[in-house]
Backbone:
């Protein structure tokens, strides 16, 4: 169902590093505690089933759950359990902090969102039917919307608390002034460091930069532009690329600079400092994000978390949270199996027919012998 896929459950919590966790004897019906607040097994199973069903639906087969995850230490199913629990722990940390700041959810907003979805689907009955097909329920969907709305309100509320003053922004600008610029530059992009170093040696000996860019750069536009990037602000480029330019002077050619795209040789033609007034607003937004990230990391690091869940243990999923329809690939496999079975039956029938003909021919020969 599309409306559940617009925002995945992983978006309910911020994907930041979790604080230290401890293990111990599990209280009845509890999978974890956060600052002595329990996360119930019932809530975990509801979230886990939703995540699990999404994986199966996206993959098109239940077999995905038994495959190994990227780290090779857990199955996909075990990873889903772990990820679900971490998300619930993160959400609980933020909910506790939201309560301290009197940040709440407006239930009328949530009810309106549910009504809108029901209307699009053709009414409450159709809404329940669609949820049931993907192993979900109205209770889960309401909880899902409440969490999203709470996080939205939480971020807006904390942004106001963490907003930097004009003096703070100015101070940061002065301390990092060389990082804010507009530049005119050219580059040669190659796949490996060895090639980049060889090109740099040629340039040091006086080779023409534009000519080498046209001949050796893997950037598609380089054959026409000679590697010329035109004029650009510092935040328009890859961070490592911009950092290299920040430490260069006009007329310089850099050593190989590694970015996510490969290795660059940069030729800086011109660099101008951006004024405080030019970047004040964008710098303010950046500092707000930095302050918020630091604030959340501190909350998580200070949180006392205990986990009681065994990821390897199979979890029984209630009938209401199970997928009611087999994924397409499972259907396809079943159909292919039936076809193969049909082929085998046809093959067996043909073999039997051949055997019958052989027997019939043998009997006729015997009858002729007897007549003679």
Residues:
């Amino acid at each position: 169902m599309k409306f559940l896929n617009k925002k995945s459950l992983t978006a309910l919590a911020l994907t930041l590093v979790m604080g230290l966790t401890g293990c111990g004897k599990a209280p009845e019906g509890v999978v974890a505690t956060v600052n002595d607040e329990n996360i119930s097994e019932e809530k975990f199973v509801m979230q886990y089933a939703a995540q699990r069903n999404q994986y199966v639906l996206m993959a098109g087969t239940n077999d995905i759950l038994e495959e190994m995850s990227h780290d090779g230490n857990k199955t996909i199913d075990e990873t889903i359990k772990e990820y679900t629990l971490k998300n619930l722990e993160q959400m609980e940390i933020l909910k506790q902090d939201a309560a301290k700041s009197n940040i709440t959810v407006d239930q009328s907003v949530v009810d309106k969102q549910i009504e809108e979805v029901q209307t699009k689907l053709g009414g409450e009955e159709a809404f329940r039917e669609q949820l049931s097909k993907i192993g979900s329920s109205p209770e889960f969907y309401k909880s899902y919307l409440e969490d999203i709305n709470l996080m939205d309100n939480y971020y807006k509320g904390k942004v106001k608390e963490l907003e930097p003053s004009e003096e703070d922004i100015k101070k940061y600008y002065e301390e990092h002034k060389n990082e804010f610029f507009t530049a005119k530059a050219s580059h040669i992009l190659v796949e490996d460091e060895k090639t980049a170093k060889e090109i740099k040696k040629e340039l040091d000996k006086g080779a023409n930069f534009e000519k080498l860019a046209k001949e050796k750069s893997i950037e598609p536009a380089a054959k026409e532009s000679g590697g010329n990037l035109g004029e650009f602000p510092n935040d328009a480029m890859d961070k490592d690329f911009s950092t290299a330019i920040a430490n260069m002077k006009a007329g310089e050619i850099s050593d190989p600079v590694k970015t996510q795209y490969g290795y660059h040789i940069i030729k800086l033609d011109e660099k101008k400092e951006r004024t405080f007034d030019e970047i004040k607003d964008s710098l303010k937004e950046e500092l707000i994000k930095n302050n918020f990230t630091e604030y959340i990391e501190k909350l998580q690091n200070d949180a006392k978390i205990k986990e009681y869940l065994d990821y390897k243990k199979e979890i029984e999923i209630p009938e209401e949270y199970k997928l009611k329809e087999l994924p397409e690939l499972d259907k396809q496999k079943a159909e292919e199996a039936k076809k193969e079975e049909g082929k085998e039956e046809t093959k067996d029938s043909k073999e039997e027919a051949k055997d019958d003909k052989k027997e019939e021919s043998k009997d006729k020969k015997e009858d002729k012998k007897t007549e003679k």
Notes: Confidence is low (pLDDT under 50) at residues 1-23.
